[in-house]
Design goal:
Length: 56
């Protein structure tokens, strides 16, 4: 791990994303659908004003 990580000049996040993608591609077809669901991410944005979350 360490040699590849240093050699590629990528961050740990990039390395783990590459490893996860390779693992998902290597899965059997019946397991790929479940793995693809875990690949989704949900983000919630909260606007801030004066050091506190602003309400809508």
């Amino acid at each position: 791990f360490a040699e590849w990580y240093v050699c590629c000049f990528c961050s740990y996040i990039q390395y783990s994303n590459i490893a996860a993608r390779v693992l998902r591609e290597a899965l059997r077809t019946e397991l790929r659908a479940d793995a693809a669901k875990r690949n989704e991410s949900h983000v919630k944005f909260t606007p801030w004003a004066n050091g506190r979350p602003a309400r809508k």
